[in-house]
Amino acid sequence: MSNFIFGRYLPLDSVVHHLDPRNKLLLSFCYIILVFMANNPVSYLLIIAFTIGAILASKISLGFFLKGIRPLLWLIVFTVVLQLLFSPAGGHVYLHWAFVNITQFGLINSGYIFIRFLLIIMMSTLLTLSTQPLDIATGLASLMKPLRWVKVPVDTLAMMLSIALRFVPTLMDEANKIMNAQRARGVDFGEGGLLKQAKSLIPLMVPLFMSAFNRAEDLSTAMEARGYQDSEHRSQYRILTWQRRDTITWIIFVVVLAAILATRRW
Amino acid sequence: MANIIEVKHLTYRYQADDPRPALDDVSFDVHAGEWLAIVGHNGSGKSTLAKSLDGLLPFTTGEVTVGGIQLTPETVWQVREKIGMIFQNPDNQFVGATVADDVAFGLENRQIPREEMVPRVEAAMAQVGMADFAHREPSSLSGGQKQRVALAGIVAIAPDVLILDEATSMLDPQGRRDMLNLVRQLRAERHLTVISITHDIDEAAGADRVLVIDDGRLVDEADPATIFARGDQLIKLGLDLPFTAKLKTALRQRGIEPPATYQTASEMEEWLWQSLSNT
Questions:
Q1: Transmembrane region positions (chain A) (predicted)?
Q2: Do B59 and B18 touch, CB atoms closer than 8 A?
Q3: B91 vs B147: CA distance, rounded Å
């Protein structure tokens, strides 16, 4: 679990860290669309330059991004190889054997797909490494606000998200404690065949469920005692402020977007 | 002193057909500004009583009046404005993602505008000595610190009554002492009425008045000195004795006759010195 980099937060003091989380979420989303817009070497170079710029600005060492890619490496290799071997005819044909078809287009396309994977994973790693989970939750809640018009209970969802995030470490601790307690009573976790392993999870899952129910009960009582009636009629302590640096990132982004649209092969 | 809480013939059953109610015809008053301890063994109905006072459990029969407002389903939120509650488990009542968020939770519910909220949250955190921890997450705090944050949440909304529902029972001795000192200090500064529900006998010994509850019935009501003078009776109710009472029992067994009335640790010390210097 400890070398799983995706979804972890790295506290550093950089421009990227101080950006508004709403801004970062929106940028990451638009960035993914941007990646799929690029379709020739020039536009790819542009977008790679933009990504490297963002990574340098975050002061996070490249090693973390490479670690972020590692768990997805098999998926990338699988997709790239598939693309390489079974692409439709086009351009110069290098190898043709049965239904395997290595062509010039296939080669270029699989190269592009490889770069796309890399860029998207790097950018989403950058998002989670530079933003606290809590800020991501607040940012998401704030971005969901327009959904109120279609009767989505945004405030309730935001409250649920924030409580869920707050209880993740607490429940992890609890799970560890239960595992150790059951081990001390002779339960073997993660050993034996698939069926035996699944069975050994029961003495972990059932107490964890029960304790979650107890926690929920206690928490709802405490919330009620502190005057919580519903999530709509509340004021907000935690607010997000859009600053000048957020505007600047968008100016840069729009410039890159325009350049890519201009160089793109339509 | 005026009564801030009046309880008349309160009866509560968890199930309608329960032959033995969790609370059976309980009546008592709480004076404004006093420290009232409610003691009793596990399952005697202490927590049920605390939750009934705040309207968290709808009681079957009886009447509860808080600060002149009678508790009914319509007035329950008004009553909760007057009462701050701290529960037993520090983890399960921590709603906010960070210390500051948790202290602000009660204020958010009252729709206090943010400009007013920020100074109040800061003042409350400073009061309980948690100002340096404002952006810490609950998983990085100790049990005692979490309970102090809970107390800061109460300070921020400034209620008239503070109910401690076994708030110190999951803390270590140091955390417990800190917490009680803090409550004492707050009470002196803000004229709070404190109701502490506990089976920690030393906590009860610091109260102005003690109610003893057994099997849902109120069995005794007096100042701590009177209550703790009835040593054997307390043990029969499943309660522990304060340290000085235990010491007296041990002395009696060795043929030394200490005074029958209850004494605090310093009074006991004084008596020991005197009896030794007389011989």
A1: 44-65, 72-95, 107-129, 247-263
A2: no
A3: 9
Q: Is residue B228 part of a domain?
A: yes
* Nearest to B189, CA basis, from B132, B128, B145: B128
- How close are the terminal C-alpha atoms of chain A, in Å? 44
Q: Give the pLDDT of residue B86.
A: 94
* Angle subtended at Cα A165 by Cα B84 and Cα A176, rounded to the nearest 5 degrees: 100
Q: Is the pLDDT of residue B272 over 80?
A: yes
Residue B9 lies in a domain: no
**Interface residues of chain A, partner chain B, Cβ below 8 Å:** 134, 137, 162-163, 165-166, 169-170, 173, 214-215, 218-219, 221-229, 233-239
Domain assignment present for B235: yes
ipTM of the complex: 0.87
Q: What is the pLDDT of residues B25-70, one digit of tens each?
A: 889 999 988 999 998 888 888 888 889 888 888 887 888 999 888 8
Provide the phi-psi class of A59: left if phi over 0, else alpha when psi is between -120 and 50, else beta.
left
How far apart, in whole angstroms, are the C-alpha atoms of residue A83 and residue B158? 66
Question: The whole model's pTM is what?
Answer: 0.82
Asked if residue B109 lies in contact with residue B103, where contact means CB atoms within 8 angstroms, the answer is no
Q: Which domain holds residue B45?
A: 33-56+75-241
Residues of B within 8 A of A165 (CB-CB) are 97
Q: What is the CATH number of the domain that holds B125?
A: 3.40.50.300
Tokens at A106, concatenated: 């296939």
